[in-house]
Amino acid sequence: MGPWSRRARVAVLAALADLALYNAFQVLHSPTRWPDFAYFYSFARAGLTYGDPRMYEPAVQRAAVDVLFPGSPLLVVVNPPPFAWLLTPLTLVPYPVALWIWTASMIAALAISALVLAPPERYWQVLFTASWLGFLPAYLLFVSAPLAPLVVLSLVLAWKLVNDKHEIAAGLVLAIGLLKPTLAILVPFALLAAGHRRLFVSWLAAAAVLAISSAAALGVSGIKSYLALSTSFAANPYYLRWSLVPVLGDGMVWVAAVALLAAATMLAAWRLRHSGAEQVIAIGVMGSVLINHHMTPGDLMMLLAPIWLLLRCQGGALRNTLLGLTWVAGWLALIFPILALVVAA
């Protein structure tokens, strides 16, 4: 390695350290009083208190939130029932303890994902770790406790299991993404297009079990409430900012664009069928971001997954530079939402 390469590495790590300090400043001065987890926790308690069929009724979610956080604004939760079931054990402990457990778990999920994907050289391990500590949307991990890190971890573990020839296990792990399906919905289909049939069948079986269990738990009335609340949530302009809806509208033009983008993602995955799973999964994540209808700010952490996966492929200085610029665009996507689509494209 020449002196300029060493200087470039030092400069990159120094910049990331500076941005990590900025994130720490953001955390210490965050005005957030009620992180997302406050509503997740109340949502799970609503299912236990009022029953699964009623937990998607706005009045029920409002009542559950008011019991713990009087005076807080209502942020409805529209994650599918398995998410509430996952959180049920945490409702057995006081909210502050549950919040610490969840936050620590999500931090660990992102940290483990970075270290599992990083090449063995110490520089890359430090770089991957610094890249999430300095990533602007990642500060929300400490103040909002979003779900995205768990989905990122499921992608990373699925990648490792594919590489270790455990396709069925990889499909089951990938099903964790169904806790928030919009984040990585095209990944299993991209892997199918790339020839990973056993993985897809395994994922599909898990998806079917979760869907049937959810429908049985909700019943007809609960399904109607779920669809009504999801439709209302999806119409909120704030969550549409990171999608093509503001550009194309919410009608047939957007539907046609989604169909074309999904087909293009499958075609790209098929063309990469002889490449490693890294590129296929990265394509699936980017396609999922492009076709999303709505996202929350914390969901932008998903952009780290394709960057890490492609960096692992070691494509040379030019490719690494482009991925670095992509990371910068992802950092700015929290401020300029259109850049999330630029990154994915």
Please provide a written account of the structure.
The chain is mainly alpha-helical. The chain is 70% helix and 0% strand. It has helices spanning 3-28, 36-50, 58-68, 81-87, 95-117, 122-133, 140-143, 148-163, 167-174, 187-193, 197-234, 237-240, 245-248, 252-271, 277-291, 304-312, 317-332, 338-344. Helix 10 (187-193) packs across helix 14 (252-271) and helix 17 (317-332) runs antiparallel to helix 18. It is globular and about 65 Å long. The chain starts with a helix and ends with a helix.
Question: Could you write a compact summary of the structure shown?
Answer:
The chain has 18 helices and no strands. It has helices at residues 3-28, 36-50, 58-68, 81-87, 95-117, 122-133, 140-143, 148-163, 167-174, 187-193, 197-234, 237-240, 245-248, 252-271, 277-291, 304-312, 317-332, 338-344.
What keywords describe this structure?
mainly alpha, 345 residues
